Amino acid sequence: MTSISVFAMAGDFAEDKDVAAHIRDDHVTPALQRGRTLHLSFEGVTLVTQSFVHALISEPLRTHGEKALDLLVFEGCSTGVRGIIETVVQYSLETMDENGEAAV
Amino acid sequence: MRVHLPNSAHLSNIGGFLAQLDASDPTDLRFSMHDRWVSVHPFTLAIAACLGAQCRRAGGSVTAETYDHASVRYLVRMGLFNALGVEAPVEITEHEASGRFIPLTNIRSAEDLKAAITDLVPLLHAPPAVADPIRYVFSEMVRNVLEHAGSPVGAYVCAQYYKKSNRIAIGIADFGVGIQDTMKRFHRVTDDASAIRLALQPGFTGTTSRIGGTEFNAGAGLFFTKSIASLSRNIFLLYSGEALFKLLRQPQDQLTLNADPAMDRHRFLKVPDWPGTAIGIDIAVREDVEFSALLNEIRKAYSIDVKKRKKAYYKKIQFR
């Protein structure tokens, strides 16, 4: 199990999509490819943009489908952060179906 | 090019300002203002600043017709004359811009944006309920400019916090390619209004024809921003090309968020051509209501398509 601190990489306002893409490419995608659990800690993050969370998890969700939710654990999320994550997860998996990509 | 600041130009009565706007011929910019009083929204200042920057870039000259009246001091402190590249009609002692406004700021890179969010928003000394919507809108809208607009002058942003009425007014403008050119790369749009309508719908972005966007762009930033204004029963303007979308105040008893802006209480206006994109937003804030509560309302309304959801995927997320 690996744990990544979003706060350590993006600060209390997580809005930098380039940082999100780095976390995705270096940690999220490899963990899902290997079938390993990844803990994404949002402890200390007070606000996050939808664009940041999209860049962080949308493509991995579309690639691995619903199964990715078994391997990703979101820790220390404030109400707002949690709401944004829920939104991105919902539309990413919905549009995977809409676009006819392989559902897992 | 021409820009005139009338005695009053806010989002509810922006027509007079736009009627006198001319963004053609960047070699000649004529700026003028009302001779007795000027009360304007940051939207107008961001547009004027863009014209000034574009004129300088083209090696043009700026002619300014200004007056020394009380409201000029506000325009000086907002950095308008610096942005236009003309001498301010009055000299004022610069105080720290604290408590009420964020002056005109030019953003050309992600680093500039980060610095603006880090350095400028705290100047308001505002509680999170006030600062968070500003940070959120600045980030989402300016990233749109940096990623899609190709604006030679970057983005100009400014904001005003009206403490008495608990309202935040934000203006953002660029001189880029505009929404129609961005959207028509991957979508069938026939004019500026249809491009704006599509850009406001969640899931449509100028970087792919795929609904839901790419790994980097979701096509949701404008929908979130419009929704933030809508939920606080305020006005939102999106201006690009010859079209302006105006979200009108939503009635208290009909406060619904719509994926399609045509379903909102709104107006599309035909206006003088603006090559880039300009956004004006008013947000009412309540210090006892967290911004996250607002975002949660948007989450509930968010739907990529009007089709009924098949499955509540979000319920399977592991939160700890």
Q: What is the tally of beta strands of chain A?
A: 5
Tally the helices of chain A.
5
Number of helices of chain B: 10
Residue share in helix of chain B: 25-40%
Identify the CATH architecture of chain B. Answer: 2-Layer Sandwich
Q: Give the low-pLDDT segments of chain A.
A: none
The two chains with the largest interface, and their residue counts, are: A-B, 49 and 48 residues
* Helix-and-strand structural type of chain B: alpha/beta
CATH class group of chain B: Alpha Beta
The number of domains of chain B: 1
Q: Could you name the CATH homologous superfamily of chain B? A: Histidine kinase-like ATPase, C-terminal domain
- The termini of chain B sit apart by 56 Å
Largest sheet of chain A: 3 strands, parallel
Shape of chain B: globular
Order of neighbouring strands in the sheet with most strands of chain B: 6-7-8-10-9
Question: How widely separated are the two ends of chain A?
Answer: 22 Å
Query: Helices and strands of chain A: which structural class?
Result: alpha/beta
**Would you tell me the overall average pLDDT of chain B?**
88
Q: DSSP strand (E) fraction of chain A?
A: 15-25%
Please provide a brief summary of the model.
The complex is a heterodimer of chains A (104) and B (320). By secondary structure, chain A is α/β, with parallel strands linked by helices. Chain A has helices spanning 6-10, 17-34, 50-64, 68-71, 79-98, and strands at residues 2-5, 13-14, 38-41, 47-48, 72-75.
Can you describe this structure?
The complex is a heterodimer of chains A (104) and B (320). Chain A has one domain. In chain A, helix 2 packs parallel to helix 3 and helix 3 crosses helix 5. Chain A has a three-stranded parallel beta sheet. Chain A has a two-stranded parallel ribbon with strand order 2-4. By secondary structure, chain A is of the alpha/beta class. Chain A has helices at residues 6-10, 17-34, 50-64, 68-71, 79-98, and strands at residues 2-5, 13-14, 38-41, 47-48, 72-75. Chain B is of the alpha/beta class and 320 residues long. Chain B has a single domain (2-305), classed as Histidine kinase-like ATPase, C-terminal domain (Heat Shock Protein 90). Chain B is 32% helix and 23% strand. Chain B has ten helices and eleven strands. Chain B has helices at 15-19, 42-57, 70-77, 80-84, 110-119, 128-149, 178-183, 192-199, 221-231, 291-301, and strands at 2-5, 8-9, 28-33, 39-40, 61-65, 101-107, 155-162, 167-174, 236-247, 266-284, 318-319. In chain B, the strands form three sheets. Chain B has a five-stranded antiparallel beta sheet with strand order 6-7-8-10-9, sandwiched between helices. In chain B, strands 1-3-5 form a three-stranded parallel beta sheet, covered by helices on one side. In chain B, a hairpin with a 4-residue loop joins strand 7 and strand 8 (167-174). In chain B, helix 5 (110-119) runs antiparallel to helix 6, helix 6 runs antiparallel to helix 9 (221-231) and helix 9 (221-231) crosses helix 10. The longest helix of chain B has 22 residues, at 128-149. Chain B starts with a strand and ends with a strand. The chains are: A alpha/beta (104), B alpha/beta (320). Chains A and B meet through helix 2, helix 3, strand 5 and helix 5 of A and helix 5, helix 6, helix 10 and strand 11 of B. Strand 5 (72-75) of chain A pairs parallel with strand 11 (318-319) of chain B, so a sheet runs across the interface.
